[in-house]
Specification:
Length: 773
């Protein structure tokens, strides 16, 4: 079984915001476990470090998997039915035709050699279990590293319980300089010096820190929260507060002291250390999925004791206390809560009288944002809006879930999903868009204008997937609703999908008549979304009937309207259509220029459908110019997009495809054609635009530079000694270190750089030295 390669996107791997401390044994054993088991499930209590360890192991192993590693984050996912879509999104697949199930995902992965990290499975356990079992059954080269608070319970699963960090034994007399040999103490010191640079572990502070780590059972999250409080408390104060808290928690049952209670106690204490404003923000911000920006926090979280003017101060305070983690996406600063911290905040919010109000504000925030997207989509900010909606995708899902949970909000959900039609298309998320349509339409069947608009959107999505039977049923309902409601605009908007349905049945005269019956009113009402789609559709139908003059006229109108709005996505469609007509007229240079311009616009969108169309036409142009080797390569690239899209691209124009391909095969012969076709087929999808435009990229082009974890000054010094061929013992003697310390430094270098041998360190350090010279 073969499938299109999953594009490597190393720059999307989560960046460490703090140093990785300890876990050398676990790293080594997990790598060994993954070498012998295809499914390893890293289990443990919240806060024990499952996600951090899984990400580190996967990053270290990335070079061992030909098709890379991928992270599927499930913490913000509430709908179990979207687990397959979450996997598809993580894989970077932009198939616009498939309704995703475990089987269809497995079919797309095929025999690729890939490591899939699936994080936070416990709240969607059943769907995860089915998903993983299917992938492992059907994808022989796939390995899965999952994190969960419990086992998936499927065949072949190796459950790997993650213990807390090692702590010094009670009453053990250990010199302060040796306490950092215990990972829990080492973590505390690392985080403590980050907030109080002058902090030092000496004979006075050492025993106190050791007792703190014991009290916290070595749970990393608890230790980090305690260490960050050194901004305002001394170690003795921290220990005393822990003693008081734990004495309260264990009263009446001193024989029972579970780890999760320890963590809960520590987070309780951190919560109590916050100001009233910070506590309010912590609880209210837990409604966000994954992350949020300051504007979102001000809109959703302000109220009562937390005024809008004080939100920034509260955000700053929570960042300082390591409750909020600061990140950046596309130049915009965002914030997120670790999942355990988020769950604590949700508990606090659910106990308050504010929960309905805050969830309603979150819903309204993303309903408003989606409405802004719909208004801004056909304008000069189209690309930034597309990027913005990708960043807010998880929060939009959460808002939709809230709408479905509250029956009075169904109309809001309808408007959200309808407004996102073009986002579902350009983002390769048609399957998810259809699922939301299905869920919402099943929930409320009452006749309404929002339902009619959603029915029209659902019919569009069904047609784009070639599901004519579902589309026919939706279109019939749309006609019925427009009559019942007396909604003439809705009846007008139905013309777009009705025309597409006729075109898909190759009844082009009927499609043209349907499209043209709506054009004047669409122009008058300035219904841009439908108007631009209809202009392209009617132009394509005229082209297929051989009427280039009419086709070009409609494409020119589409181009002019798009340019006047500053819009880029539909403009690329118009340029493609004009390029086809120029090729048919024998204007080969002009045709190539138009297609190149269309491709340049598509760099911003990842719209694989249109890119594939453009590459296909460039193959026709190359054939017409006698550049048969290049034509064969471009057919190879186009074929990759055909497979990636899930259904044949350019099915309407298959006559042109077959004619040009036969001509190239005859000119080159089957052997040469196969050779050059294979060269094109091996070009990665993310390089295809550049390749088609003649830029120096191809199958052998390396992926984007991979992140190198920065080495410390001492580790760089040791790497240079490795270049000289020194053993660990010789390094230790040269630098006046213990041999054990030298060995630990070398192991850290291997882990940080993702290497497996000293020879790789030597090669890397040599290259680094030559760059510096």
């Amino acid at each position: 079984m073969t499938a299109p390669s999953v594009p490597r996107l190393p720059n999307q791997w989560p960046t460490d915001v703090t140093s990785f401390v300890g876990r050398r044994r676990e790293l080594r054993e997990l790598r060994r476990a993954l070498s012998s088991s295809r499914l390893v499930n890293l289990t443990g209590v919240g806060g024990v470090g499952k996600t951090r360890l899984a990400l580190r192991v996967a990053w270290d192993l990335r070079r061992a998997f030909q098709d890379g590693v991928r992270l599927v984050e499930l913490a913000g996912l509430e709908d179990e039915g979207l687990v397959p879509q979450a996997v598809v999104t993580a894989l970077g697949i932009y198939d616009q035709s498939t309704r995703w199930t475990p089987e269809t995902v497995a079919d797309r992965l095929g025999d690729q050699q890939l490591l899939l990290v699936i994080d936070n499975c416990e709240h969607v356990l059943q769907s995860c279990a089915v998903m993983v079992a299917t992938l492992l059954r059907d994808c022989p080269n796939l390995r899965v590293l999952a994190t969960s608070r419990q086992a998936l319970g499927i065949a072949g699963e190796r459950v790997w319980p993650l213990a807390a960090l090692a702590v010094p034994e009670a009453d053990a007399e250990i010199p302060a300089q040796r306490l950092t040999e215990f990972e829990a103490v080492s973590l505390f010191v690392d985080r403590a010096t980050a907030v109080v640079p002058e902090f030092d572990l000496d004979e006075r502070t050492g025993p106190v820190v050791a007792r703190i780590c014991r009290r916290l059972d070595g749970i990393p999250l608890a230790i980090e929260l305690a260490a960050v409080s050194l901004r305002i408390l001394a170690p003795d104060d921290i220990l005393r507060r822990l003693d008081d808290r734990f004495g309260f928690l264990t009263s009446g049952n001193r024989a029972s002291f579970p780890r999760h209670q320890t963590l809960r106690a520590l987070i309780d204490w951190s919560f109590d250390l916050c100001s009233d404003e910070e506590r309010a923000l912590w609880a209210r911000s837990s409604v966000f999925a994954e992350d949020f920006d300051l504007e979102g926090a001000e809109i959703v979280c302000a109220g009562g004791e937390l005024t809008t003017a004080h939100v920034l101060d509260a955000v700053t305070g929570l960042v300082d206390k390591s409750i909020l983690i600061r990140t950046e996406h596309g130049g915009r600063v965002r914030y997120r809560l670790l999942e355990t911290i988020r769950q604590y905040g949700l508990d606090a919010l659910n106990r308050s009288a504010q929960v309905a109000l805050v969830r309603g504000r979150h819903r309204d925030r993303y309903s408003d944002l989606v409405e802004q997207f719909a208004h801004g989509w056909f304008g000069p900010d189209q690309v930034s809006w597309f990027s913005r909606m990708k960043t807010e995708h998880a929060n939009t899902r959460t808002a939709l879930e809230h709408c479905l949970a509250e029956s009075g909000d169904i109309s809001v959900a309808m408007r959200i999903v309808d407004s996102l039609l073009d986002y579902w298309r350009t983002g390769g998320l048609i399957s998810e868009g259809r699922r939301w349509c299905d869920r919402i339409l099943e929930r409320d069947s009452a006749a309404s204008a929002p339902r009619l608009r959603l029915v029209i959107t659902a019919s569009h999505l069904a047609l784009l997937q070639g599901d004519l039977s579902a589309a026919d049923a939706l279109l019939e309902e749309g006609r019925r609703l427009s009559r019942v409601l007396g909604d003439e605009t809705g009846r007008l908007l139905l013309k777009g999908p009705e025309g597409l349905a006729a075109a898909l049945r190759r009844d082009f005269p009927r499609a043209i008549a349907t499209y043209e019956s709506a054009l004047d009113q669409l122009r008058e009402k300035e219904e841009l979304r439908s108007l631009l789609a209809v202009l392209f559709g009617v132009g394509m139908c005229y082209s297929l009937l051989g009427d280039s003059t009419s086709a070009a006229a409609y494409y020119e109108e589409l181009l002019g309207r798009s340019q006047s709005q500053g819009e880029k996505w539909r403009r690329s469609y118009a340029l493609w259509g004009l390029g086809v007509e120029a090729w048919r007229a024998g204007e080969l240079q002009h045709a190539a220029e138009l297609i190149h311009e269309s491709l340049e616009l598509q760099r911003k969108f990842n719209d694989h459908h249109t890119v594939g169309q453009c590459v296909e036409v460039l193959a026709w142009i190359a054939m017409s110019q006698g550049e048969n080797e290049q034509a064969a390569r471009l057919f190879g690239v186009s074929n990759t997009f055909l497979r990636e899209g899930g259904t044949p691209l350019l099915a309407f124009f298959d006559e042109y495809h077959h004619h040009c391909e036969r001509a190239v095969r005859r000119a080159l012969g089957e052997q040469k054609y196969g050779k050059f076709f294979a060269q094109g087929a091996s070009v990665r999808l993310q390089n295809a635009v550049g390749y088609a435009l003649g830029e120096p990229v191809g199958a052998s082009t390396p992926v984007a530079p991979e992140r190198e974890t920065e080495l410390s000054r001492r580790e760089l010094e040791i790497a240079d000694l490795v270049v000289q061929g020194m053993s660990n013992k010789q390094i230790a003697n040269t630098l006046v270190l213990s041999q054990r310390t030298a060995e630990a430094h070398v192991q850290n270098i291997l882990l940080k750089l993702g290497f497996t041998s000293r020879a790789q360190i030597a090669a890397w350090a040599t290259e680094r030295q030559s760059r510096s010279h």
